[in-house]
Specification:
Length: 618
């Protein structure tokens, strides 16, 4: 082994890749691809010689891509690494058995009881949904191997008692790693979940959803979370499942290569947990433009007679799990895939090779080929034009003073030359929302108002709630930010910035996006051209970290933007209502590639290739 390879092995020897995406996006398919051999990967990708196309091969675009592809293919062919799958739903079962064993109850009986208790339609959303009670017995689960798992955990449960943890931490982690990957445990999980799917695939997903919520909220799989009351949800338990996954990772033999893929994460704070622990952590979001079709295909194998109904309910549950509403209201223990997507820095699309010419890493397999090549050898080749432009949009969003969501935008011409950048923020001359302070506003005495820092409306304005009721904005702010609560925050060395739009809407008991202090990132980017002078944007491309709203979509359409590339899909009707109407519609597509800190980790070489080559040739 060359000396330089020892440096690359520092990264190649260990990595953790976590997947996320809405239901049907293809996370499990990608995980299986990562687990397989290069021979399996080859069936999902083009061979380098298949890229040849008489109409394109003399172009620079073809030459650049084909050379990148050849480099990725050759390196991965020589140094391919398989990943061990850590299934989140399997970790959920293991954590459930551990928690029941700690209670000292009859684990088999309690396990069957809680499964039956959580295997049912939603009482709120699924009225009239036909289903049969789950047929499940202790004898069945023991036949599948649950008693073996219980015995193993019971023999080792004392190792995780608080008094013994530091002394027994390494032994427990090795035990839990070996148990998780042993044949007996994997066989049990496969048989258990297949049984649930055969009964009702949708209710299997509902069971996993409820069980995970119960453990993350209460640390007790037998409890039930009422999202309306948020009763007893405790952040102390938020990281129980991901903590177990962390133990599984740390329990691996450190003398061997340790590459793991987690399928899949749906709570954004679990992503933060891993990102703060591992430098070699990579967050991947899977996208699929045909989610519902993918779900129907899976369901048809198990529930053929009611596949359409079951698939639609699974899709609706996925929409619920994608929503950030509960997270924004302070309930962090339930799925918030929307924020998970925002936390992802590698974006892969579920696609198969379709026989057409694509001068990019097109299929899911080819996209993974590219990522793995860069993991093996950072800086092996340069970023794509899309990645370069989106990386700039991703970086400039951190200039935003918005305390709700930071968004960045870049506009280029048709040749990807950047013409303008912008982010969501207040007009020039005003104090950004992130630097406001509700306590400062509320403490202002009459006659001492400073209209440079806060608006006349914030100091003196009134809101009409209904025909008979008018309230002062400042009085409502004082009720919302009482002194005792803000004092607690100040004692922590922090401040109380506030969102005018959120407070105004709450006081007025309405929802709209009109009364905001900030410009949207897209309109700010377009206005920079007008403000500073420059070229027209007709025929240009817009890169934005969140797809444009209805208002910004109309403006982009009007100035002649021909292509809009986004990271996160904004939750309104802009695409269907504005961008997909008319005679000269702009293309609107999701971003595929690498951004953020991962962009630098994968595209920044350890050293210049000239120096590396000299070392290798000695």
């Amino acid at each position: 082994m060359a000396t330089i390879d020892k440096i690359y092995n520092l990264r190649n020897k260990f990595s953790v890749v976590a997947l996320t995406g809405v239901t049907g996006s293809g996370c499990s398919e990608l995980a299986s691809l990562m687990e397989g051999s290069f021979e399996n990967l080859k069936t999902k990708i083009r061979k380098p010689e298949e890229l040849k196309n008489e109409g394109e091969k003399d172009s620079k675009q073809y030459q650049v891509f084909s050379r990148k592809y050849q480099r990725a293919y050759r390196l991965v062919e020589k140094k391919h690494e398989s990943y061990k799958i850590i299934s989140y739903k399997n970790a959920l079962i293991l954590e459930t058995v551990i928690l029941l064993a700690k209670k000292g109850v009859n684990v088999g009986d309690e396990f069957v009881t809680l499964v039956k208790g959580k295997f049912h339609p939603s009482t709120t959303h699924d009225k009239g949904y036909g289903y049969e009670m789950l047929n499940l017995t202790v004898e069945q689960v023991n036949e599948w191997g649950l008693d073996y798992i219980i015995d193993k955990i019971s023999d080792n449960i004392s190792k995780i008692e608080e008094d013994n943890w530091e002394n027994n931490k390494s032994d427990w982690r090795k035990f839990i790693h070996d148990l998780f990957f042993c044949k007996e445990f994997k066989d049990f999980c496969d048989k258990f979940y297949n049984h649930l799917k055969s009964n009702d695939y949708y209710l299997k997903n509902g069971f996993v959803h409820r069980l995970a919520n119960a453990i993350r909220s209460f640390g007790d799989p037998e409890k039930t979370l009422d999202k309306n009351t948020k009763k007893d949800a405790d952040m102390e338990n938020m990281f129980l499942i991901i903590g177990l996954i962390n133990d599984i990772i740390k329990g691996a033999n450190h003398d061997k290569k340790r590459n793991f893929v987690i399928d899949s994460l749906r709570c954004s704070l679990e992503i933060v947990y891993l990102r703060e622990r591992y430098n070699a952590f990579y967050m991947v979001c899977m996208h699929n433009e045909k989610c519902i079709e993918t779900i129907k295909t899976k369901v048809a194998h198990y529930n053929e007679n009611k596949a359409e109904t079951v698939a639609n309910h699974i899709f609706d549950l996925g929409i619920t799990e994608n929503s950030p509403k509960d997270y924004e209201e302070g309930l962090f223990s339930v799925p918030d895939i929307y924020n998970c997507i925002g936390n992802s820095e590698i974006h892969i699309f579920k696609r198969n090779n379709d026989g057409n010419v694509h001068l990019d890493f097109y299929s899911t397999g080819e996209q993974w080929l590219k990522i793995q090549a860069l993991l093996l050898h950072p800086g092996l080749f340069t970023p794509s034009s899309d990645e370069r432009c989106m990386s700039v949009a991703f970086q400039v969003k951190f200039n935003s003073g918005c305390i709700s969501r930071q968004v960045g935008c870049v506009i280029t011409d048709e040749k990807f030359t950047i013409k303008s950048v912008g982010w969501n923020d207040v007009p020039v001359g005003q104090i950004p929302c992130g630097l406001t302070d509700a306590r400062e506003l509320c403490d202002t005495k009459k006659g001492e108002e400073d209209f440079r820092h806060y608006s006349k409306f914030e100091y003196l304005g009134s809101i009409t709630v209904n025909e008979n009721t008018t309230v002062r904005f400042l009085d409502e702010m004082k009720s919302t930010y009482p002194v005792d609560k803000t004092n607690e925050i100040v004692e922590e060395g922090l401040y109380t910035p506030f969102c005018f739009k959120s407070n105004y809407n709450a006081f007025k008991k309405q929802k709209d996006n009109v009364n905001t202090r900030s410009l949207h990132a897209e309109e700010n980017t377009m206005l920079q051209i007008s403000k500073n002078g420059g070229v027209g944007l007709n025929g240009g491309k817009m890169y934005v970290t969140a797809s444009p709203c209805v208002l910004c979509s109309k403006k982009a359409y009007q100035i002649g933007i021909k292509e809009i590339i986004y990271l996160d899909r904004y939750t309104d009707i802009a695409e269907e209502q504005i961008l997909e109407a008319g005679y000269d519609q702009p293309i609107c597509r999701g971003f595929c590639g690498i951004v953020g800190a991962t962009y630098y980790k994968l595209y920044q070489p350890f050293m210049s290739y000239k120096d590396e080559l000299q070392i290798r040739m000695k």
